[in-house]
Amino acid sequence: MIISLKEGKLLCFVNMLSSRFFNKGNSGKKMSLVTVSFVTFGVLIIISCVFFLNYNNCSFAILEPRLNHQNNEIVWKPKGDNKNLTYTESWLKCEQNKTAANIAGFNSLPGHIKDFLYYRHCRHFPMLLDLPDKCGGPEGSADVFLLLVIKSLPKNYNRREVLRNTWAKERLQNGVWIRRIFISGTQDSGFEEMTLNNLLEIEHLKYKDILQWDFHDTFYNLTLKQMLFLEWMERNCPHVRFMLNGDDDVFANTDNMVEYLKNLENNDGSKHLFAGHLVKNVGPIRDPDSKYYIPVQVYKSESYPLYCSGGGFLLSGYTARTIYNMSHSIVLLPIDDVYMAMCLEKAGLHPESHSGIKALGLQIPDKNADPYDPCFYREILLVHRFLSVHMLVMWHHLHNPQLNCSLSTKM
């Protein structure tokens, strides 16, 4: 938390007042530590009342955080009846780290890499759209069995609409709740950015399923987006059992996911789980023309830890919280799936492979077969890179009670 000038003056005043009061006495001796603590607490209450409330209306209240969407701040409001009591916690706008320019070879880097290094330390951005009660509040979040966390650019309206009506539909499935959240930043600039922000706001009001932060939503900010979500989850949905983290162009058989997760042995979300398509024995791509270009100025090692492809993976609430806690001491890396693996590694945990998660697409054994035959997809958990039209048709085919699959079309 960054303390404002007004709060700084307040603390200085309290310190000066308490110091003089504590060191005075008829006996010339200092007051006991216990007495000092009580007096300090009382002084703070009185001055807080003067500054933040009406002097005559000062009272105690249990405060809870509520984000102010218009400013980069958290407003603390009471849970009780005293609605006048508020306290604002704010942070300054993140400034460019100009010392990044001193890194060897900095001037030879592409502009987007320079920008990443300039602002790599920035981890807090104001929320434009929030859903603090999405999981029923922190206490009620344990009732959410599977939270679908879907990365989506503001412009991808059509994809979101299809998902809302297919595999990402919020529902009670096999006795447990599935909830849905799209996470997004901002896109483009000027009038186009305003239009896209308005689009998300309209969707947000209608569906209550969008989280948006005020940062530029690019490939190199995917890790930032993930960490912002985990910070939000820690505050609003800390007891969610499991999560699917994926892109908005994946086809996820969430019916199968619920069945798989419910059948896990001795794991109700309170133990480690991070399952997907494993990628091993690879390192950073040093080709400046590659989308995945990572120069030594960003990541020095020539190898990545074992990780799950970021198209889509399943994780427990326990593992999500662990990743978030580890992230505080690990500098950001643009490749989000690798960064999560770095956090797991620091915690002594590892991802695991699941044969039903096809993050690189589904390989059909028969070249003459229909690649979208629903029987190929009936038992899988997830397939990456699906067009919206195929997704809608596939979901309806899989839920057709008349679907009859021969052995030749089962994966």
From TrEMBL:
Q: What is its EC number?
A: 2.4.1.-
Q: Where in the cell is it found?
A: Golgi apparatus membrane
What is the main EC category here?
Answer: transferase
Keywords noted in UniProt:
Glycoprotein, Glycosyltransferase, Golgi apparatus, Membrane, Signal-anchor, Transferase, Transmembrane, Transmembrane helix
* Primary site of residence: Golgi
Cellular component GO terms held in the UniProt record:
Golgi membrane
Q: How does it sit in the membrane?
A: Single-pass type II membrane protein
Record has Cell cycle as a keyword: no
Pathway terms, separated by semicolons: Protein modification
**GO MF term (any one):** N-acetyl-beta-D-glucosaminide beta-(1,3)-galactosyltransferase activity
List GO BP terms, alphabetically.
Answer: poly-N-acetyllactosamine biosynthetic process; protein O-linked glycosylation via N-acetyl-galactosamine
Superkingdom, natural source: Eukaryota
For this UniProt entry, which segments traverse the membrane? 33-55
Family membership: Belongs to the glycosyltransferase 31 family.
Mind telling me what this protein is named? Hexosyltransferase
